Amino acid sequence: MTSQVRGGQLARLLGQWHALPGRRRSPDYAALAAAVRGLIADGRLPLGVRLPAERELAEALRISRTTVTAAYRELRESGHLTSRRGAGSWTTLPGGHRVASSGLWTPQDDLDMIDLGIAALAAPPELIPATRAATEDLPRYLGSAGYHPTGIIELREAIARSYADRGLPTSPEQIMVTNGTQHALDLVLRLALAPGGSVLVESPTYPNALAALAARRARIATHGLAVDAAWDADLLLASIRQSRPKLAYLIPDFQNPTGHLMPVELRERLVGAAHAAGTDLVIDESFVDLPLDGTPVPPPAATFDRHSRVITIGGLSKPYWGGLRIGWVRASAPQVQRLAAARIGVDMSSPVLDQLVAVHLLAEASTIVAARRAQLAHQRDALLAALAERLPQWRVTVPRGGVTLWVELDGPISSALARAAEEVGVRLAPGPRFGLDGTLERFLRLPFTLPAADLIEAVQRIAAVRYDLDRAGRPQWREPSVIA
Ligand SMILES: Cc1ncc(COP(=O)(O)O)c(C=O)c1O
């Protein structure tokens, strides 16, 4: 990470800071401070980075030093800058809040904030009885040390059965239990990708996957998905054939954030192309249990795998509860052994009690998941109706599963909108979070995981600030009027 940003670099990042939407008639110093806050909020200016000295920034921006001094003062007052004599000034967040490495905000305890940054449901009612039942089971494990690097056998069996039920015969030796799907991805990357290795991902994609890839210093290429058109089969297969990435990370089932579902033919062709190119496929099935409206889900990509090219990852966070931290890897038995060996250097194994809770939840999968689907369909429809009423100019394709809408906005306003929405108590994950290079400003991910009333209230607040952006966005520079 950069530890210091030079005047010229910051000036480039700030771009047209003096003409940002929402500026209205604020003085230059306030506009400059707002623009720096925006860069921090968007994750474009990392936390803990030393900003240029006032004089250097004033020169780079061709403005007076007093303006920069006043802007820095305002940033200090709002908690976005910390200065120490002799050490300079570096970026921070108010109240010591932190931004995740993906740039997504970590949840705060602000009860009035409607948090649309997180695409996950609250726990189902069955969690408490499942936890009670798990504590009853615990004594069976207390006589051993409790380390199970691939997971306790009964959970591995239950997960293996769930693949068999989907038409993919799987033995418990092919399953490794992890602390969530993110952990599964990180472990798989450690095993399958040397630092600096090449990876193909969808754009947009899941931001924390990008964070995991960044940790491996992966060289990332993207395959673009549109709002209404999912994977372009020819382009996707051609990019695998031509660039032969070491690994491709894809989310074929109700992709996060677009909600797209990959058709069965493409799954089959993808596995064939990956094998021919020597590419490993990491298939993230986080949302596979959440088809809506009775949508049939095609068989897993691994069904077409004859050469151990496909590593599948999944978990309980989306259908059940993120706080449980249960995920897994499905791979060949030797790959699982190698993953378990890699894991010893990381976290040894997953908590036994949580795994027992997972066993009980999976035993009731059909009831729990049916209720989750009904809840999600209802919330999705409430969100769609609120958008159609309040923001009819936005374009949405109705997702047939998953937990998110990928909305095409009426302009490249996503980050500005997220900043404005924060002011009225709605946290948003703007489009650029889901891409690599600051693109996707015309898109916004809206999860439908909160109760319908919260979603409707959020859309009302968003619609109000969307309207303000327009008013503030009127041309800042008028043609001089002719006086005759
Ligand atoms: C595609 C995808 N993969 C992985 C994760 C992380 O899941 P877990 O909580 O199981 O680590 C998420 C969570 O949002 C996700 O959307």
Automatic annotation (TrEMBL):
Keyword vocabulary terms for this entry: Aminotransferase, DNA-binding, Pyridoxal phosphate, Transcription, Transcription regulation, Transferase
PROSITE patterns hit by this protein: HTH_GNTR
Keyword check for Transcription: yes
Classification via SMART domains: HTH_GNTR (SM00345)
Entry annotated with the keyword NADP: no
Positions of the HTH gntR-type domain: 26-94
Gene3D superfamilies: Aspartate Aminotransferase, domain 1 (3.90.1150.10), Type I PLP-dependent aspartate aminotransferase-like (Major domain) (3.40.640.10), Winged helix-like DNA-binding domain superfamily/Winged helix DNA-binding domain (1.10.10.10)
Annotated GO MF terms: DNA binding; DNA-binding transcription factor activity; pyridoxal phosphate binding; transaminase activity
SUPFAM superfamilies the UniProt entry points to: PLP-dependent transferases, Winged helix' DNA-binding domain
Family: In the C-terminal section; belongs to the class-I pyridoxal-phosphate-dependent aminotransferase family.
Name this polypeptide is given: DNA-binding transcriptional regulator, MocR family, contains an aminotransferase domain
Species this protein is from: Micromonospora pallida
